Amino acid sequence: MSETATNDTNGKELDPKDQKNGDQNGEDDKKETQPPVKEMRAVVLTGFGGVKTVKVLKRPEPQLSEGEVLIRVKACGLNFPDLMLRQGVIDNPPKAKVPFIMGFECAGEIEAVGEGVTGLRVGDRVSALCESKAWAELVTVNAKYVYKIPAKMSFEDAVAVTLNYAVAYALLFNVGNLKSDQTVFIHSVGGGVGQALAQLAKTVGNVTVIGTASKHKHESISNVTNLLDHSTDYVQEIKKISPEGVDLVLDCLCGEDANKGYNLVKPMGRYVFLRRTSKLTTGETKSVLSLAKFWWSTDKVSPMRLFDDNKTLSGFNLRQLLYQQGKHEYVRDIVERVYKLYSEGQIKPLVDSSWALEDVGDAMQKLHGRKNVGKIVLDPFKEPIPRPPEEVVEKKRKGSAKEKDNKEKEKENKDSKEKSGQSGDNGDKKAEDGAENSK
């Protein structure tokens, strides 16, 4: 197709090449006038596996949509589902494909409000339960998953309370139907949810709380009537405390512990399964063997057995309830009840430690090793732990390897010299013996 000439402002024809150059210059001018994309720091999952797949990267700031609020994040919560997500073993993972921003909960201040949002405004202090993307400096969240926090509640307390205590409240009172003069048995009572369960159980009159935790956590755990070491025969210990059994078992371990827990439940008692996590995160990465062992070691209880035993078996999954089953108003009611208890001083969250976003790998390893007592928090404003640059670490590693090789060579040379010396001594002795015999 032939190119058509265009007249300039003086009526003269422009060369087609000049016209193209003019168009290109116009496009360049448009690019120069466009504002640069604003970026933020975020914790990004780059692939499923160990902690090295989790990195702090720059990402474009999120754009506000209808029905959402934009939150400047002040604190984030770390939970076992985050470890499961990283390993790729979580049920109903977020719809986003890797790489994506991690994090299921955060707290902060609202910076912008989208169209159609009511009851929230700029400057409100809030917490939010997100379907991922919470671990960033900014996050957009649908308003139905956002909750105003009490005036005296810190952002750190907000992420220690909102998710853990909402789960605990539903387990104890909505599902477990805990009442006064009853006995409740809680696994992993030293964790964030475990501590929430123990505190909330104590708001009911004359309730006996029995809990298991690792021995090294015992001194830091309160609100538990009888604290047992999980590595011991805790079933026999519980039978000594409550020969008839317990009214409520709250189990986050499953596997063999589920079978033991069910047998501890007395007639008209309840066994509630609260998460499928601990037994699935035995290593840093996903283990098919652990999955198989978890499934195989758990008894399959038939409805007829429940009928004959007069027991109730149930479960509770807040993520599923909130994002898949649309029960956000149910969850909001529980969160507001929990905030009321906080304002009245009936509950006080225990924060184990606070970490910079850049130190999320260390925070995950602490949670993975069950070394925390209470909630682990990520703080976007916290300074990371000073670390040497990667090239220094690599140089040090190579230097250590070289030093090790030199030491091994020195040892080999020393051994060789000692052997040579022994051979020489033997030769001299033989020569002396020969000379003596000749005499």
Automatic annotation (TrEMBL):
Q: What are the recorded GO MF terms, alphabetically?
A: oxidoreductase activity
Task: Quote the Pfam families the UniProt record gives.
Answer: ADH_N (PF08240), ADH_zinc_N_2 (PF13602)
Give yes or no: UniProt keyword Cell membrane: no
Q: Which parts of the sequence belong to the Enoyl reductase (ER) domain?
A: 49-378
Keyword line: Oxidoreductase
Q: Which InterPro entries match?
A: ADH-like_N, ER, GroES-like_sf, NAD(P)-bd_dom_sf, SV-ATPase_mito-regulator
> Where is the stretch described as Disordered?
1-38, 379-439
Provide ranges: composition bias, Basic and acidic residues. Answer: 10-38, 380-439
Q: PANTHER family this protein is in?
A: SYNAPTIC VESICLE MEMBRANE PROTEIN VAT-1 HOMOLOG-LIKE
What name does UniProt use for this protein?
Enoyl reductase (ER) domain-containing protein
Q: Which organism is it from?
A: Oppiella nova
> Which taxonomic lineage does the organism of this UniProt entry have?
Eukaryota, Metazoa, Ecdysozoa, Arthropoda, Chelicerata
